[in-house]
Amino acid sequence: MSNFPRFFPSSRADLGTDRWPFSPPRSKGYNTDGFNVVIRVRLAPVAPLKRISPIMTIERIDSREVGLLIGLILGKRLLKSDDLHYGYWPPGLKVESANWAQAQSNHSDLIVANIPGGVKTILDVGCGAGAFAKKLTERGYQVECVTPSRLLAQEAQKLLGGQCPIHVTKFEHLETDSRYDLILFSESFQYVGMGKSLPKAVRLLNPGGHLLICDFFKKDVEDDGALGGGHRLEKFYRRIDEQPFESVTDLDITNEVAPTMDLVNDFLLQVGLPIRDLVFAFIAGRYPYLFRFLNWKYREKLKQVDEKYFQGQRNAEAFIRHKSYRLMLYRLRPA
């Protein structure tokens, strides 16, 4: 557990005091890989806020979509990678940011290596920004993509250049006359409802087609800690047994994938946390009354974000304890 400060008011009675969730102290220091950063806050007079034009409309964006887009931007600019998935870290590959792109490439190669012979048409469900779909087309596969995110679909369209049809919808709502040799869920199965998606996959597969899932699942433990997401593994096995599938491959790659979380955790604590506090310090200095109101209004949400992302609990050890990351291949049995 890290020693990051907690600034959350316990009740409305805290209004009017300086005990706000993210009210920065007068001086606060960080050490980020050799750089000493000190935040000094001087409260300034409240400046008038600019009025937003009533003509301006803001489209509601899902928080997961925002997270993926941020990951895409950081991956492209800092890590030279277009992929939006975990890395695969075999023995001998040092866990450091310089090897991030290689680890993600290893992950993609593992999936490709488990695509059965004879597969020609693939439906990539949750295609992200299209990086893996592009790799598949380069290997000669005919690929169609599904994503519920309009923004990610735009990024995929830029990358794929019209090579793959992109269905902007949830998999459960997909309407198509096409049938596929393989349906792929690469870290997207956790976002779909099993009750509807598994029967849908059966309907969309050609006779003898395959379902390939590469994703993490919840283990049967009491608490997920700071790591949410994923279906319960035992529940998945029960649901897949209800469908006309037979298991071909079931690989547990949790230990090889988990080191990704150590790099993510380091980034959150060494980069994300100082930037967060710098932003809050700036807002507190320029708009102190607004800052206090927002911290009171959203104190519970801010507390949840702090506990989830900035307490050092999103690491490989916690991932291995709570999650099971698997590559699973199923074949559709004859009717």
How would you characterize this protein structure?
With 335 residues, the protein is of the alpha/beta class. Helices cover 39% and strands 19% of the residues. It has a domain at 72-218 and 225-258 and 318-332: 3-Layer(aba) Sandwich (Rossmann fold), CATH 3.40.50.150. The chain contains eleven helices and nine strands. The strands form two sheets. The chain has a seven-stranded mixed beta sheet with strand order 5-4-3-6-7-9-8, with helices on both faces. The chain has a two-stranded antiparallel ribbon with strand order 1-2.
Question: Topology of this protein?
Answer:
Layout: E1 27-32, E2 35-40, H1 63-78, H2 100-113, E3 121-125, H3 131-138, E4 142-147, H4 150-160, E5 166-168, E6 180-186, H5 194-204, E7 205-218, H6 233-241, E8 245-252, H7 254-257, H8 259-286, H9 288-297, H10 299-309, H11 316-322, E9 323-332
Parallel strand pairs: 3-4, 3-6, 4-5, 6-7
Antiparallel strand pairs: 1-2, 7-9, 8-9
Radius of gyration: 23 Å
Unreliably modeled segments: 1-28, 30-58
Main β-sheet, in a few words? Answer: 7 strands, mixed
The SSE order reads EEHHEHEHEEHEHEHHHHHE
Q: What is the assembly state of the chains in this entry?
A: single chain
Q: For the record, what CATH class of the domain at 72-218 and 225-258 and 318-332 applies?
A: Alpha Beta
Percentage of residues in helical conformation: 25-40%
What is the fold named in CATH at topology level of the domain at 72-218 and 225-258 and 318-332? Rossmann fold
Q: Can you tell me the CATH superfamily of the domain at 72-218 and 225-258 and 318-332?
A: Vaccinia Virus protein VP39
